[in-house]
Design brief:
The structure is a homodimer of 245-residue chains.
Chain A: E1 2-8, E2 14-20, E3 23-29, E4 39-44, H1 50-66, E5 70-74, H2 86-100, H3 107-133, E6 138-146, H4 149-158, E7 162-168, H5 175-181, E8 188-193, H6 201-210, E9 216-221, H7 230-243
Helix pairs in contact in A: 2-3, 3-4
Organism (chains A, B): Streptomyces antnestii
Protein name (chains A, B): Alpha/beta hydrolase
GO molecular function (chains A, B): hydrolase activity
């Protein structure tokens, strides 16, 4: 992990860009975090494209920092400046075509788009976690927050250092992930936008039902994919405060 | 409205029992409420039987009082010491029989049980509201919190003094109420226990979908009918703090 830039934001949050091999990422730490008082960490999931997502990511990072959390994110495979996969691009084009035609999105499209992404991204998040937890200002426990919900689901199963997750049900989920969902046991807080244009509501409810966690909460709100209300963000922050402190 | 008893609880909350005609009820006011600083009011809905429900009702009342709210409840028609309706008792027996046999609960049973209850209870809650809002320690705005969700739905449509509602999706809902749900426009916070033994989950999700409110939130949690977790109660309190203050 090599830090490539560092700046202090107006609220005292320290923002550092880094690379982990070929993968770019960003780490935000509260001004108060130090080797003597390391901050618990929340991994910020997103749909890919760090530059485009920056305003929303930094907003989430500031909110978390105000609650005493460090946050970090990395670019997804095939997004931003990372090399594209021809197969994923073809699957994405098929998905777009189906959505524009108002057709149901076939399982094969979802599988081709999401399964290779999960396969590749999850070990990268784990490598990032290795590097991040070796920093003196970062302590445990660790949470995962956001989409892609299939990545968050797999991480919650295979990564024992993640103790709680806020999962955003805003993307299509391969059937295979439903089986994995049953193996999740950490506390979950699932966000669903009831009228999300690029999401299958019934599938999201089925996935919520499938999670094996004894403590799981679904918060459904009105509006489209990007319309998560401020109070829903506050509730997610309270979930992490309950479980990561 | 005649007050029949008054006591100050250990946290300073004043609990007063009253009768409104033949209907018994209870009013809780924060120790700080007075004619010069009247408290906003939350009506506490429940499934009937004030005596049996008292421990849970007073718990909710204390929680609300700590947030500065007065709360009040009245006995439901056919519950507690109020005269039974033979038709409602017959419907209740049919419901119990269907549930015990693991059979689907027919629409006719739900209609016979719930529709007359809504017809009778809603004007009683409105009469209670008239009396309560005439007390100097009680101000507006007013919220409704709890079940019976069909009563809360009808009240939200017909009673303009209610500005926000926390509705507990824990009872069967007549089809006719789904049409009324579309007419609800106030902010709603709907609580659903995912594995509620006496509730139809899909029907609850359909009812949530039907509500016409622009701001509506569904909070689904694990566990049975009475297992609403503490943090879900806190979230409902925050909803009222946002809308009634």
């Amino acid at each position: 992990m090599h830090f490539t830039s560092e700046q202090r934001l107006d609220d005292g949050v320290i923002e550092r860009e880094f690379t982990l091999g070929e993968i770019p990422g960003t780490l935000w730490t509260p001004g108060s975090a130090s080797a003597s008082t390391p901050a618990p960490l929340i991994l910020l999931g997103h749909p890919g494209g760090l530059d485009k997502m920056y305003p929303r990511l930094v907003g989430r990072a500031r909110h978390c920092a105000a609650d005493g959390f460090a946050t970090a994110t990395i670019e997804l495979p095939g997004s931003g400046d990372r090399p594209r996969s021809a197969a994923a691009e073809a699957a994405r084009a098929d998905l777009r075509r189906a959505l524009q035609a108002g057709e149901p999105v076939g399982e094969d499209i979802v599988d081709r788009l999401v399964l290779p992404l999960v396969e590749k991204a999850v070990p990268e998040w784990q490598a990032a976690l290795d590097a991040l937890l070796s920093l003196p200002a970062i302590g445990g426990p660790v949470g995962y927050s956001g989409g892609v919900i299939s990545i968050g689901t797999r991480l919650s199963v295979v990564e024992p250092r993640i103790s709680a997750a806020v999962l955003f049900a805003g993307s299509f989920v391969p059937r295979a992930l439903f089986e994995e969902a049953r193996q999740v046991t950490i506390p979950l807080h699932v966000l669903l936008q009831w009228d999300d244009e690029g999401n299958d509501r019934q599938q999201a409810l089925d996935l919520f039902d499938a999670f094996g966690s004894k403590e799981k909460t679904l918060h459904a709100n009105m509006g489209g994919h990007t319309g998560v209300p401020q109070f829903a963000g506050d509730a997610a922050a309270q979930f992490f405060a309950r479980h990561l402190k």
